[in-house]
Amino acid sequence: MDDVSPERAVMIRLRARLAVVERAAWFGLIEAMRARPAETEAYLTAERAKCAEGFGQRGWAADLTEAERRLLGAEVDAGLAGLIADAKSELGQG
Description:
Blueprint (H helix, E strand, L loop, with lengths): L5 H30 L1 H19 L10 H25 L4
């Protein structure tokens, strides 16, 4: 690790942890979509609505500016929508 600065090493380790969590969550989502596709999609759709309200009207992430919260909310919404589409595609459901 002599070629990687300590600061970059911290960032890379955090990215690795995020990748592990993402893969574990993906496994859980695929299993849920196999077992209960309609219920899983409905849950994720409800979470999209909850997040839209939370980052919008309710002011989640109060440490961010309004513009930053809008961006964060849009990214979360797009990510959840993408999960639904990707899981359906993976399972040949859409």
